[in-house]
TrEMBL record:
This is Cation-dependent mannose-6-phosphate receptor. It is found in: Endomembrane system. It holds the Pfam family Man-6-P_recep. Keywords: Disulfide bond, Glycoprotein, Membrane, Receptor, Signal, Transmembrane, Transmembrane helix, Transport.
């Protein structure tokens, strides 16, 4: 009985595979179903954070300089807000070549960058930036916001845009192909089984249904499996079982 319960428990456990969007370029990534492409976006400039102390620029696809710094190849640049008689400083919070994608499209897709090192009181830390890409398919605008500072030099942004949505591949997706194969297999199983049992074994009536005894008892197996799962995959060893 314990072995049967163990098999039922393992059968009921489902593993959901998540598909990370694989990088194609600094501003695009792909899954088996399509592509997310930010190349149509223009540069976002002079976006202030919650405290209004810095202007933040984001160049999604084309590398640019950052203020008066000699470095090129910059995607995310931060510059102090101009004050009368004070020289402003700029900081590189993300190089274009460091762009990487994590998460799933439409759920938690994030574009990551790394920039220069920052010398802080606690030591040297790497400047980093993360942009949450939120799909807004029914909008024509691109809403870029500076969210917050995580840690000392970890910056968080959000882009709400139709360009953050998945553009499907032409033709059938991988999920559609799997569904078609599944239903074809079901039809072959039922029709082929009926023909085999009818003409090879001479069955008639419900006996022509493939694996009739199994399917007849299947609801009870599902019930036993659900009860076993809600018990934490433990057998009922009480005397009520006898």
């Amino acid at each position: 009985m314990l072995e049967v319960d163990f098999v039922i428990c393992l059968t009921l456990i489902t593993f959901v595979k998540s598909e990370v969007c694989q990088k194609l370029s600094a501003c695009s990534c792909k899954t088996s179903d399509g592509v997310v492409d930010l190349s149509a976006l223009q540069s976002f400039t002079n976006y202030k954070g919650p405290k209004g102390l810095y202007n933040n620029d984001w160049n999604p696809c084309i590398a640019r300089p950052c203020g008066t710094l000699p470095n090129t190849g910059v995607s995310i640049c931060q510059t102090e807000v101009q004050k009368p008689g004070v020289k402003v400083s700029s900081y590189i919070n993300g190089y274009l070549k460091t762009a990487s994608f994590t998460g799933e499209v439409g759920k938690n897709l994030v574009l990551h960058y790394t920039g220069d090192n920052a010398t802080l009181s606690g030591g040297i830390k790497l400047r980093q930036s993360s942009i949450s890409l939120i799909c807004v398919s029914d909008s024509l605008s691109n809403d870029f916001t500076v969210q917050e500072l995580k840690g000392d030099v970890d910056y968080v942004f959000t882009l709400r845009s139709p360009h953050a949505c998945l553009v499907p591949n032409p033709g059938l997706s991988a999920g559609s192909i799997l569904l078609i194969l599944f239903f074809v297999a079901v039809v072959v199983y039922i029709v082929g089984g009926i023909l085999f049992l009818r003409f090879y074994r001479g069955a008639s009536g419900v006996e022509m249904i493939p694996n009739y005894e199994f399917w007849k008892g299947f609801p009870l197996l599902v019930k036993d499996g659900m009860v076993f799962t809600f018990r934490g995959c433990k057998s009922d060893t009480t005397y009520s079982q006898i």
